[in-house]
Design goal:
- This protein folds into two domains: 23-33 and 288-413, Lyase, Ornithine Decarboxylase, Chain A, domain 1; 43-284, Alanine racemase (TIM Barrel, Alpha-Beta Barrel), CATH 3.20.20.10.
- Helix content is 28%, strand content 24%.
- The protein has helices at 23-33, 42-55, 73-82, 91-99, 116-125, 134-144, 182-191, 210-223, 252-264, 282-285, 318-322, 409-413, and strands at residues 5-6, 11-13, 20-21, 37-41, 61-66, 85-88, 107-110, 128-131, 150-155, 177-178, 196-200, 232-234, 275-278, 289-300, 305-309, 328-330, 338-344, 352-360, 367-370, 391-396, 399-404.
- The strands form three sheets. Strands 4, 14, 15, 16, 17, 18, 19, 20 and 21 form a nine-stranded mixed sheet that branches. The chain has an eight-stranded parallel beta barrel with strand order 5-6-7-8-9-11-12-13, surrounded by four helices. Strands 1-2-3 form a three-stranded antiparallel sheet.
- Helix 2 packs parallel to helix 3 (73-82) and helix 6 runs parallel beside helix 7.
- The longest helix is centred in the N-terminal third of the chain and has 14 residues, at 42-55.
- The radius of gyration is 23 Å and the shape is globular.
- Bound molecules: pyridoxal-5'-phosphate.
- Pyridoxal-5'-phosphate (PLP) is lined by residues 66, 69, 87, 110, 202, 205, 236-239, 279-283, 375.
Length: 420
């Protein structure tokens, strides 16, 4: 691999096409737009999408970007321009997708414990629906019968994913209809003559092992013969991306090869050829994102040197919520010696981003950047402690575009009603 080199735009790239924004470029963006700041790099999203497409080129596969990871309308438009479809987890995400220009047939609504009225709205919008409960399947049958196709989200009872909090297919998970309830599912399907076009599973996030997907496929293949109108098998998302140098990631080529073989060995005799659907979230947008912060205070104590930044779990909750690891660099002082720090937030809760973390010597005012900040970063942010949500910037073709303005005090008051 050739060493990284700077382009005129400040974008660093390598012969492997691995796109990264350079530290000086990130510093410039922090100066121009202020901190805390989310920055996304369009070409990295494209690189990831192309990787997926090329890995699955031999299998009939459709990709639905799991938009819950990052819904900024500019990101949705960009991902649409790459040729992807979109997966939504609320009716408002579906409406954002329509707003971004996706056609109804490109929008999949994988529902989870929602009110039936959202399913009715999804139907009226003409989008694809996956239903995850017997109760909603029954209501769907009563109202729409054979007139509108439907997918069924199943729980395969498989333990998968980086940790329990992001594991969604096991036998205590709320997600999907347990596959063991196949008899009840079929009762409803037959009673209302449902047009079941798809079977869906999503077993978790950060799944390294391709065989987990194959296990899920085997569970689904066992029941495929019951559904004669099937067109797709949706395996969800959950591909692991690297968080630091040398970190493991899902081997997408191996995964594509194994999935391709599994489908080739299961031609669905008497039924339609089955298309593979995938719902990548993190895989597309995790690595494109940088969260740039500034250091407010460096506090030396006997237990640790605390670095308090101008952020907290109100802006990036993944480390506290999921014990997620984010690589952190001091982009203002990159040549200085490494020291150990506890990087913490400035809100009135224990919000430790990293403990005992080696970072180039930190001074007050330095910019610290968090990597892998594209997925579930801004998207999970809040106004806790009445702090403002950060701005978002998209760097595309070397040009920085403000795609969400920083909130202001007025935003805190916007929906409040001074009624008493
Ligand atoms: N599909 C479904 C149904 C999900 O619940 C999720 C994540 O929660 C995803 C896709 C995307 O997962 P990831 O971002 O790990 O690819």
């Amino acid at each position: 691999m050739r060493s990284l080199h700077e382009t005129q735009t400040g974008i660093v790239s390598s012969r492997t096409m691995s796109q990264q924004l350079s530290k000086p470029h990130l510093i410039e963006l922090a100066k121009e737009f202020g901190t805390p700041l989310y920055v996304y790099h369009a070409e990295k999203i494209k690189e990831q999408y192309e990787k997926l497409k090329s890995a699955f080129s031999k299998t009939d596969t459709a990709f639905f970007y799991a938009s819950k990871a990052l819904t900024n309308i500019n990101i949705l438009k960009y991902i649409k321009s790459l040729g992807a479809n979109v997966d939504c987890s609320s009716i408002l995400e579906a409406r954002l997708a329509l707003h971004a220009g996706f056609l109804p047939k490109q929008i999949l609504y994988t529902s989870n414990g929602i009110a039936f009225s959202e399913i009715e709205e999804a139907q009226s919008l003409g989008i694809i629906i996956n239903i995850d409960s017997l109760s909603n399947l029954e209501k769907f049958g009563k109202k729409f019968g054979h007139s509108y196709p439907v997918g069924i989200r199943l729980r395969p009872n498989i333990m998968a994913g980086g940790n329990l909090k992001i594991s969604t297919g096991h036998d205590k998970s709320k997600f999907g209809i347990p596959v063991t309830q196949i008899k009840q599912i079929l009762d409803i399907v037959h009673r209302y003559d449902l047009l079941v076009h798809g079977l869906h599973i999503h077993t978790g996030s950060e799944i390294k092992d391709a065989d987990v997907f194959i296990k899920g496929i085997e569970v689904l293949f066992d029941i495929v013969p019951h559904f004669r109108d099937l067109k797709f098998i949706d395996l969800g998302g959950g591909f692991k991306v690297p968080y630091k140098k040398g970190d493991t990631e899902t081997d997408i080529h191996l995964l594509a090869q194994k999935i391709g073989e599994a489908f080739a060995n299961h031609p669905n005799p008497g039924g339609n050829p089955l298309q593979v659907w995938l719902e990548p979230g993190k895989f597309l947008v995790s690595e494109c994102g940088y969260f740039i912060t500034s250091v407010n205070v460096v506090k030396k104590t006997p237990s640790a040197t605390f670095v308090s930044i101008d952020s907290g779990f109100n802006h990036l909750i993944r480390p506290m919520f999921y014990d997620a690891y984010h690589h952190i660099e001091n982009i203002s002082n990159p040549e200085s010696p490494m020291k150990k720090y506890a990087v913490v937030g400035n809100i009135c809760e224990t919000d430790t981003f990293a403990w005992d973390r080696e970072i180039n010597e930190v001074r007050e005012g330095d910019n610290l950047v968090f990597y892998n900040a594209g997925a579930y970063g801004f998207e999970m942010s809040s106004n806790f402690n009445s702090r403002l949500r950060p701005a978002e910037v998209l760097v595309k073709n070397g040009k920085a575009h403000l795609i969400r303005r920083r909130e202001t005090f007025e935003d805190l008051l916007r929906n409040q009603v001074e009624a008493v």
